[in-house]
Amino acid sequence: MDSWIHPALFFFVGALLLPLLRGKAKKGFILLIPVAAIVSVAFARYGTYGVYHFLGMEGVFGRVDKLSMVFAWVFVIMAFLGALYALHREEDGHHIAGFFYVGSALGALFAGDYLTLFIFWEVMAFSSVFLIWYGKKEKSIAAGFRYLLFHVFGGLLFLAGMMLYYQKTGSLAFNSILSANASLPEYLILAGFALNAAVLPLHAWLPDAYPEASVEGAVFLCAFTTKTAVYVLARGFSGFEILAIMGTAMTVFGVCYAVIENDIRRVLAYHIISQVGYMVAGIGIGTAMAVNGAAAHAFAHILYKALLFMGAGSVLYMTGTAKMSRLGGLYKYMPLTMIFYIVGAVSISGFPLFSGFVSKSMIVSAAHHEGRIWLMSWLNLAGIGTFLSVGLKVTYFAFFGKEAAEPLQVKEPPLNMLWAMGLTALLCFIIGVFPQTLYVLLPFPVEYHPYNLAHLSEAMQILSFTGLVFYLMVKKLSPEAKLNLDVDWFYRRGTLLFMKFDEKVIAPFDTLWGELYRTLGLRALFKNAELSYTFDQKAIDGVVDGTAYSVMDFGSVVKKMQTGRIQTYIGLSLFLFFAILWLVL
Amino acid sequence: MNVLKIIEYLIAKAAPLKTAFFVFLGALVLFDLFLPREHAHYFVDKIYAFWTFFALAGCFLLIKISKGIAHLFLSKDEDYYG
Questions:
Q1: Domain coordinates of chain B in residue numbers?
Q2: Do A376 and B44 touch (CB under 8 A)?
Q3: Can you tell me the distance from the alpha carbon of A346 to that of A320, in angstroms, rounded to the nearest whole number?
Q4: HSE of A376 in the Cβ direction (CA atoms, 13 Å)?
Q5: pLDDT tens digits for A8-59?
Q6: Alpha-carbon distance B74 to A483, whole Å?
């Protein structure tokens, strides 16, 4: 067996060495780490590496096969682009959190058993939360804690499922599960995975936390957590019908919120749910073409969604807000950012020549092939919403539209951010024009040609007529400075209601009880003490003293009888003997 | 900057671009007429210009329903959670 350096190792060691460097050396080092990881992935050969034994179980650090490799490729490429985008950040902590996050995501990808997976899974949650806290606002801190609690809950579901699974099968090997064999343990694991994939109704952590993350952190966040979850679902749970249904529901749910949200990063966050929905649906359909589509879409999605978050982040970084109600006319000041954003937007919408066209359509076509026309129609409806919200609405209201009330005299973002966006945009274009570059990486052989007449006609009709409706209804879509409720209401407002219940019912009852105790209980206690004291003084002391006096008196009588003369003792004894005898008889 | 000049040029030509867009829409619908349909199995493939009608109706309903639900009960003040 060849030796192989796990790419995660570069990120973990790099994170620890980073604080030792200064100035330009540090910047170079930040870019060098992902490059080293890319080289490590490029030289990886299929096989099993890093097998270890722990408590009688077998763990695997490095399962390198087609499915883990397609995700590994895009993870390391994304790590480089993300590091480039974040290069201007001075805080070591931000880079370290990013490195630990990417490293643990890679660790989870290559894990061959549930235990190893679980460990990296948790490191991922605990390192990514720092990227939210680096948003450095009060809201970021609170959202970070909610994110962490939610992911700990998901981790516990996974852990419980894992233990029951071990009891059921006697093994922790992480392999494909047949939906016919699945019972409680498998479904608990599935729920833990689904939480990270933001499957309804376990999704609210995502649009709650990501928009509050730091500008650079959000670029990392949108790439790794949900896509690691897509990978583990594809590995373990392909062909589960519930995933096909829930995935399709996610696609439409996500775009509905994207249509009504105001903050660009919140639009994009809801849109992640929609896009991950396509992948989950593909996994649920479970045919070779559908799983291929899920992997391809994850690959393409990581790049264009990161590009969109970079564009939105640049707007936030330069203007101080990402709310469309306070933006407008930015094309004058940030034309390059706008062009890169538009490349991301047309990619995600699935325009021919861009990456979404060759990846999303694989999943839609797989549904079509299987005769699942309703699924296909819903997926295409979500495609309409995608172009409408991310493509048209954001571009129009942020970069064109009415100029903002207070003029935004801003410049393009720093060069490293522009370069990161430019490179990512280039990749989206390359994948769109040369789909084979992506298709060779996919887990199953590909017999799919996206550029056929029927598909082109379908895609162009959907996109162009969506454009027409937008043109006619643009006034209806003007962004509103509002907050839209989601299921996080239940734990944000729900807990507040509980607090109110506590304040209004439990706390007053507690006070009343305290008062009652103070007035009645304490008084009774004092009275009781007083009584005890008197009883002690009068009764106990009396008895004790009385006993003492009696003993003394009795003693003086006995003393008088102690004459020391033997005949008196014998006489007294005989007298007592006869007295007793008389009494008894 | 060059990029900006191109964008401003395009904005200045908004009217002819609009006409071009409508011509393009018509061409798309026409194009679908000549599409081979011998392999069509399902109604989405058989109905002429199905995706045009789908996009028009779908996009309209998506806006109406999303905005409607938002205005009905989802929308709250921005500091709703404090």
A1: 2-74
A2: yes
A3: 25
A4: 21
A5: 999 999 999 999 988 889 899 999 999 999 999 998 888 888 888 887 788 8
A6: 8
